[in-house]
Amino acid sequence: xxxxxxxxxxxxxxxxxxxxxxxxxxxxxxxxGRELDAVIREAKHRASKITQPxxxxxxxxxxxxxxxSIDRTYDYRYSVLPRVLGDLIRKGRLTEDDLHGLSEDxxxxxxxxxxx
Amino acid sequence: xxxxxxxxxxxxxxxxxxxxxxxxxxxxxxxxGRELDAVIREAKHRASKITQPxxxxxxxxxxxxxxxSIDRTYDYRYSVLPRVLGDLIRKGRLTEDDLHGLSEDxxxxxxxxxxx
Lengths: 116, 116
Prior knowledge:
- Chain A has helices at about 5-10, 20-50, 55-75, 80-90, 105-115.
- By secondary structure, the first copy, chain A, is mainly alpha-helical.
- Chain A starts with a helix and ends with a helix.
């Protein structure tokens, strides 16, 4: 499907095959798992070093910030998924290889998001 | 100073000598320190056991709850301090011995709060 510039910009009108949905879901879950594992490691590290009460609230603040950021970032609606996947590549949570099998137009869109 | 029933109930009109303020401040800080030490121990214990992402947010929720509870409980205004000290005795964070040196009327008020 050839997309118009505005469709290309918003990424809303892509059609997802069953196979593509499976690829996207797997990549999405992979990135989310990496993100959460990193937060678990960091939270354990921070907790283990606490000696002062103020550091308790620093840990609370860190967890709240990570939860809110993850909630904002990991949005699986297909209307925004190409942008989300592009952002995850830019942030190093995914590689383009993780998305092998998506259509060329989606990969081009995702690549554009990832590199801008 | 003999207090009327309403003063006795609200505890607002006690007069605090310098010596009593020092005793109250020391006891208050002792209880707060014990409370915070317990939260530090519990947070380290909970963090060390985390294996699932949901437990991160359980830890966040625990810390938020403890912070809010401590903020509410540890109110050093002299107008409410007898009630606060009584509450801390009831919760086992202080003993009446920690308040040795306060006037008899304050100790009677605090005892009443602690045992009701």
